[in-house]
Specification:
With about 300 residues, the chain is of the alpha/beta class. The chain has 10 helices and 13 strands. The strands form 4 sheets. Strands 3-2-1-4-5-6-11 form a 7-stranded parallel β-sheet, with helices on both faces. β5, α5 and β6 form a beta-alpha-beta unit. α6 runs parallel beside α8. It is globular. The chain starts with a strand and ends with a helix. About 45% of the residues are buried.
């Protein structure tokens, strides 16, 4: 099987690429390297004789996408400007990468005989609607252009299935963490930033009172969800929430990190940021029931692996 992974040199994309190489698939990594890194693909040396090709390009460039996906059976579409803050500061720029980028991937798939697109959607589509936990049929009410871009993309996935019979899957990621998440990036998740600062002996900053909670899910479990979508879904349009299914607030997260690092952590609390969601947790029962998804890592287990990777 030949697979293209947009954003394949990034945090989640590189983990998907590693699993595809491990399974013996022919892999094309398509990335503009704005945040992705070639060193994220260094795992390939552990698989002699494997096929991994790197193509530098941007999903906002239709011709480049179309050329990269020729001959592919399926696409994991992970490329995006994954920042709520950036989307608020510059909505047109993030629209180009996120919404238009998805449309380019779908159109390139339609025109090149690709049969399946698996899309990295986001819990940001739900905004801060008070219904908790979030289920697949929960109200969609994005609070940021980033969330809107992801939801527009999901609508296009449905349309490309209905109009052109392209098999499409939208995986709505909750808060993903793990090795290879770049802490120096302004788009990084809070866990990546916290662990790096703690390792450096620095204070950490919490926006708000620390009682805001998230559904943190380890990156290897997100990879599992993607591979199940690849292997088990062969027609239609499907959408799933991808989370661990348990809430962890930031104060609890800091407490777990103190336990792992075995030291006191200085925390500075400051004003909440615009566009940030107060509460977010999912009920993952749909993906568990339909695809056999089984989250394998608790937050603490995932954090221990992440901390070990940083040391």
């Amino acid at each position: 099987m030949k697979i293209c992974i947009t954003g394949g040199a990034g945090f989640i994309g590189s983990h998907i690429a590693e699993e595809c190489v491990k399974k013996g698939y022919e892999v094309i990594v398509f990335d503009n390297f704005s945040t992705g890194k070639k060193e994220n693909l260094s795992f390939v040396k552990n698989f002699p004789g494997s096929s991994l090709k790197i193509v530098k390009g941007d999903v906002a460039d239709y011709k480049a996408v179309s050329k990269a996906v020729k001959g592919c059976n399926a696409i994991f579409h992970e490329a995006a400007v994954a920042s709520v803050q950036k989307s608020i500061e510059n909505p047109p720029a993030t629209f180009e990468s996120n919404a238009k980028g998805t449309l380019n991937v779908l159109e390139a798939s339609r025109n090149n005989g690709v049969t399946k697109v698996i899309f990295a959607c986001s819990a940001a589509i739900f905004g801060d609607h008070p219904e908790i936990p979030k289920r697949e049929d929960s109200p969609v009410l994005p609070k940021s252009p980033y969330g809107a871009d992801k939801y527009i993309s999901e609508v296009y996935l449905r349309l490309y299935n209905e109009l052109y019979n392209l098999t499409t899957v939208s995986l709505r990621y909750f808060n993903v963490f793990g090795p290879r998440q770049d802490p120096s990036s302004p788009y990084s998740g809070v866990i990546s930033i916290f662990t790096t600062r703690i390792a450096q002996g620095k204070d950490i900053t919490v926006f708000g009172d620390g009682k805001q909670y998230r559904d943190f899910i380890f990156v290897k479990d997100v990879v599992q969800a993607n591979m199940l979508a690849l292997e088990k879904i062969h027609s239609g349009f499907h959408y799933y929430n991808v989370g661990y299914g348990k809430a962890t607030d930031l104060n609890m997260l800091i407490s777990i990190l103190q336990k792992i690092y075995q030291k006191e952590i200085t925390v500075n609390y400051t004003d909440a940021r615009p566009g940030d969601i107060k509460e977010s947790v999912t009920d993952p029962s749909k993906i568990i029931k339909e695809l056999g998804f089984t989250p394998g890592y608790s937050v603490e287990e995932g954090l221990r692996i992440l901390v070990e990777s940083l040391q």
